[in-house]
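Proteins fold reproducibly. Take a tokenised chain:

. . .
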Amino acid sequence: MSNNVLVVGAVNVDLVVTADKLPGPGETVVGPAVATHGGGKGANAAVAAARAGANVRYCGAVGADDHGAGALRELGSEGIDITDVAVLPYVSTGTALIVVDPSGENQIAVGAGANAAVTPKAVTAAVKRAADWADCVLVSTEIASEAIASAVNTAADHDLLCVLNTAPVRTSLRELLRFRPVVTPNESELIELAAALGVPNTSSLSTEEMASSLSTRTGASVVVTLGSRGVLVVTSGTGDPVSVPAPRVQVQDTTGAGDTFNGVFAAALANGYSIAAAAERGVAGASLAVGWVGARDGMPHVDAIERALHEGAR
């Protein structure tokens, strides 16, 4: 394995307000300032993968605006190859509006902007170019459904290991699971996926039962992120679910924790780790990331991940 990862997904700028509480319907909350950070689930995961030691290429789109130029500079500064990121005129760079409370919980609204204009043709071309290079293709679902399908289909056509981060869940994903990507939903996304695939009585099933049923029906491996409880791994064809616990940490901001997990997880798979071992590394990375405010500021480098794993094993 050469530890090469192609990431396909969204590039955003994140505008973050820290407030005393999250707003309810029709409610306004006020924080002291607005912080601007690089974002987008795919771009965040790409940064996490690069810091975890992977060689990363990125496929996506930004607007021909200051936010887009800044986003590309940030990705480039992490050593990420941005050749396959389109710069589109007359469209804004994707923007996420985020409110964070003192416990680190958040609410997020996203304006897709250029992410909605990522084309299937561009994605197919990027995956094909990476076919003899990539050890893993990581796909996030904040881009158009057709572009997501192109990424998963083309990866399968070239026998490339594919990780599908199902945030958000789209109805089109039901057809894509037959290609057996490794899917990485959180608990609410797992329920949506199971319901979309016709798993009966989802309200009475445990997370373990639902993940196992989803894996049995699709043949895909399922890795469910559980926040402070770690992750649950169901590897296709191997039987019982495996729990990977998370260490207790002081949480500052959970924004980007899932993206950190996915990036570190994909980097570990590209480096030859098993799904369970890669999930363990992903949990370690995400646990370190939540100690910082902002999706990327706390994303750890590979040496910090190694230390956390070593300390956890003692």
Summary: The chain has a mean pLDDT of 92. Residues 275-289 form the longest helix (15 residues).
